[in-house]
Specification:
single chain; about 250 residues; mainly beta; 4-stranded antiparallel β-sheet; binds calcium ion
Length: about 250
């Protein structure tokens, strides 16, 4: 065989060998999320991108209207538009919330004590919270003229109870050796949930085991329909003067 022919045959043989060994470019390619490999490149399904279709655009199917922009799949709407796709004209453009109300997503959020579509309705409270009782004066002695304690002044505590004076429902701590002429504020926190139940506000000289009853006054919360923030209680027959600090709840 001539040399030229021989070389040609070797060339053909090698060419067939190389072609038959040529690697599939998609053989080692993994495309995620239903992507398909074509010529070594992942062709990704809708919304996916990246070399292996590993990235997803959360805004792919979000269509923000009226100039809204998509951020992490949610529409950020321009002023005046609300809704998932900014498709709704915000009623807050025309809704005027009164008495300090704020328009949020088309509705007025009213401050306590106000209601109605535009917060124009004045509500009646349904509960009364007593946050402080201030003792301005108290009986100097027991009704029989004897001192509250053998030594020092009375150790005053307060109670709030429905119906008559009682230590069974709500009591405060006591203040040591109170002196007439001084003012004694005592913090408390009691929520009266039914304004039509009489409440007795009473003071006691703390003694163990049985405190001495010093005096008390009864109120009907619903009587105070102008919703005051302080209520004066006084019984001048026994020199009992007290103030309640009140908040009303709705
Ligand atoms: Ca006593
Ligand atoms: Ca005492």
């Amino acid at each position: 065989m001539p040399n030229t022919m021989k070389n040609l045959l070797i060339f053909l043989f090698l060419s067939i060998f190389i072609i038959s060994c040529k690697q599939d470019p998609c053989e080692d390619k993994i495309c995620l999320n239903s992507g398909i490999c074509i010529d070594g490149t992942c062709q990704c399904e809708g919304g996916y991108s990246g070399e292996r279709c590993q990235d997803y655009d959360e805004c792919f199917q979000t269509n923000c209207l009226n100039g809204g922009t998509c951020l992490n799949g949610d529409c950020d709407c321009p002023s005046g538009y609300i809704g998932t796709n900014c498709e709704t004209v915000d009623p807050c453009l025309t809704l005027n919330c009164l008495n300090g109300g704020d328009c949020v997503s088309g509705a007025c959020a009213c401050p306590p004590g106000f209601g109605g579509v535009d917060c124009s309705v004045v509500l009646d409270p349904t509960k009364m919270r007593i946050t402080k009782i201030t003792i301005d004066d108290f009986p100097a002695t027991r009704p029989d003229g004897t001192n509250w304690d053998y030594v020092g002044g009375p150790d005053i505590m307060a109670s709030v109870s429905s119906d008559s004076c009682s230590l069974n429902e709500y009591t405060t701590g006591y203040l040591n050796d109170c002196l007439k002429g001084n003012t004694y504020p005592i913090n408390m926190n009691i929520l009266i949930e039914d304004l039509d139940v009489y409440q007795s506000i009473c003071i006691w000289d703390w003694d163990s085991p049985d405190p001495d009853y010093m005096g008390g006054l009864t109120i009907l919360p619903s009587f105070y329909d102008n919703w005051p923030t302080t209520i004066l209680l006084q019984n001048s027959n026994i020199d009992l003067y007290m103030q309640l600090t009140i908040s009303w709840e709705y």
